């Protein structure tokens, strides 16, 4: 019990610092809502794609979507970085709400599945700059360096937990409702996010660059991050490992459907059950990661998180049983926050 209290002491203090700041509270609740909605939407979309074209179509769609995001995100972030961040966040929420609503109508009306997937791909590309812009805006919402440290830790934890809680919620909803209902939940999450962001009151200087100063070209701005990472061996290593973990996480979007339906024969409701195990693990992992965020064990935590985020997938393949699958997805959820927060 003493160990549990020790682990949770720092999370309580850190979370309280953020919760007591009205604007930090709003921006984190905004991130939580939209990310959970996105995760639920992704699960429903995965099931929809699997129903239409099987594991091959689902794998191809996820691969293409991730490739598009990887190719366009640097330029998208560089472009929106030249605009007021609050307006950007609200605009991204509004555009994504419209796109997902359109996808829901297509599914309801029996529209072409390829068109649904195209809309989904565009939605992913449009939403990719949201988190970087949100993070860039955070320093203007704090009143002290201590608050900024707490905000960064809480923001990373909220995102990493929401990324897996969202699919869990989507899977559970699919077990009792339908794909368009889950799409509608995502639309509501964007409305929730936009309303919260509209109420933000920046305390510091606007992160938007000074219009009087010459701005670098868009391509130069977009590639600056790559140049910085490539120039530092340690950054190359950490970024490379994080990219590998992201690839595995992307494969997990396909894997959870295949495991539930084909490997352990739980059917489509099983997607929800396994996603729920993932979500529970993420909540536990988020608390642990938040408690360790201020300690000098980041390399160990990062490596542990990578192992927990990858090895369980192999275990399920070697021992395809329902109980093993539930345990494996719980551990997968446990590892994700350790990687993201560190």
Automatic annotation (TrEMBL):
Write down any Gene Ontology CC term. Answer: plasma membrane
Q: What is the first-listed, main subcellular location in coarse terms?
A: membrane
Membrane-topology annotation of the record: Multi-pass membrane protein
Do the record's keywords include Transcription regulation?
no
Which keywords describe this protein according to UniProt? Answer: Cell membrane, Membrane, Transmembrane, Transmembrane helix
Query: Pfam families from the entry?
Result: MFS_1
- Molecular function (GO) terms listed? transmembrane transporter activity
Report the transmembrane regions from the record: 114-133, 153-175, 237-264, 270-290, 311-334
* Coiled-coil annotated residue ranges, if any: none
Give the location in the cell.
Answer: Cell membrane
Protein name in UniProt? MFS family permease
